Amino acid sequence: MKTPRKSKKILAVIFVLLFIFVAACSVSHFTNDAYRSESQFKEYVYEYFSEFDSHRVKQIAVEEELIEYDRPLSIAFRYPNTGMEGPDEHINNIVNTAKEDFYSIYADADRKTKIVRFMAYDAYQPKKEAISIVIHQEDELHDGDEVDVQNKKIYTYNYSTETGEALEGINFFKGGFRAYFSQYLTKYFQENHGDELLDGYQNYLTASVNNFKDFVVTDGGVKFYFQPGTVMAPEKGIVSVEVGYQDLNDIMREKVDLDAIDPEKPMVALTYDDGPYPVSSNRILDCLEKYGQVATFFELGRNAAAYPDVVKRKAQLGMEIGNHTYSHKDLHKLTPEEVAAEINTSKAAIESAGGKTVTVFRPPYGNTSAVVETTAAMPVILWSVDTLDWKSRDANSVFNEVKKIHDKGSLNGRVILMHSIYDSTAQATEMIVPWLLQNGYQLVTVSELIQYSYGEAPQPKLYGYGYFYK
Ligand code: ZN
Asked: Can you tell me the distance from the alpha carbon of 215 to that of 157, in angstroms, rounded to the nearest whole number?
């Protein structure tokens, strides 16, 4: 059937009108009319999110959304809910801080403008035992036809799928990885972006412990991020560089090592004497377990015999178990035979309770002697930070004894003395552990401290008051 000429003309006009309409609609997404109502805002936001969804490698089972529409300020956050306590606490922290920060920096924004803070994420799982997340944040400032993007920022986070612990460079890479990436990335930037580099860009590429913290492990290799204005000018935005697996053969571990100790990072050994005692010792263990950290416990033989379950739990959690004599007598007042009895009976009692070999010894009151050291026949460990927890019985005071040394310099290489028999000390532990981690310290056992911080294999000798200082 033939279409009459007149109908063809009408059809053509309809097409042109339709084209103009569609064009107008799509343009409106990028101009003044990006969104005018809450429903249009949501549409606009989901379009933004869909770009991240379309290339996301690993799908996290549950996603959270935080969408708040208002004039002039709106937020649109999409972020993962991992179902693990550690990562979720960390991610929620990022989200809440970003929200508060947004409403505070734009508190005086003109009501005629429209400002939206976006947050979206990518996730990777290149190895069974780890997930990498990168959260992107940016602000769109809509002013008439103009859309200005500001405050671009990224947050990277890697965690263990087994324990939920946060993973750092040393868990993925072998010791000396910072020097390797320093050399690799300096060469990369000089060859590829020679004339775009900012003065002082090298500061972000040295082998310092402050560098190479922003990374995710992808399917292609390791992707490092540099915040705007670090290696290149702020208008270049976030700079990322992926180092491919072919260039990681010598430096990447076969498997994520959860217990790896970073010899280049500051470290501290928490030590607890006089236990085990069920209530307070378990509360201390709950805290260490929550953060995936370790400490050294100098146990009394008589308490280990009374509460073997607590010693077993310590052993299972990878704590170092030390001997603190059977009944806490002053060894200076005993004959060599009595000293031997106090030390050896205790060692046997602690090992039979916990099923783990005792590796270090600490004499009550720090009262050591040549006889004590020969009899103990293992490292005799004193301390370099006395919290006086037995005296104050106050969590804040214990915390402050630790904090004040950091404030004056550093706790690196220190052995901190506490007692596992006080609730106040358990409470102090709940303050000290997260605080140490936030301040960049690793928690290690006493034997690890001697090995990694002082570069010495632990010997059967005295590690006295003067030893644990850097
Ligand atoms: Zn003691």
From this structure: 8
CATH of 171-247, one of 3.90.640, 3.90.1570, 1.10.287, 3.40.1350: 3.90.640
Write down the catalytic residue from 122, 214, 273, 389.
273
Q: How far apart are CA 73 and CA 110, in angstroms?
A: 10
**334 CA distance to ligand 1 centroid (A)?**
16
pLDDT digits (tens, 9 = 90+) for 36-68: 899 999 999 999 999 888 878 788 879 999 999
For residue 332, indicate whether it is catalytic.
Answer: no
Q: Quote the pLDDT of residue 433.
A: 98
Output the pLDDT for position 1: 45
Residue 34 pLDDT level (bands cut at 50, 70, 90):
confident
Q: Is 419 a catalytic residue?
A: yes
Residue 419 CA to ligand 1 center (angstroms) comes to 7
Q: Which CATH number is 32-167 given?
A: 3.30.565.40
Distance from the alpha carbon of residue 322 to the mean position of ligand 1, in angstroms: 12
pTM of the model: 0.81
Q: CA–CA distance from 139 to each of 119, 336, 378 (Å)?
A: 9, 73, 60
CATH superfamily of the 267-463 domain:
Glycoside hydrolase/deacetylase (3.20.20.370)
Hey, what are 359's tokens?
């590796």
Query: 365 alpha carbon to ligand 1 midpoint, in Å?
Result: 6
Determine which one of 90, 142, 328, 419 is catalytic: 419
Is residue 266 a contact partner of residue 442, using CB atoms and an 8 Å limit?
A: yes
Select the more confidently predicted residue: 452 or 4: 452
- Residue-wise pLDDT tens digits, 163-177: 898 999 999 999 999
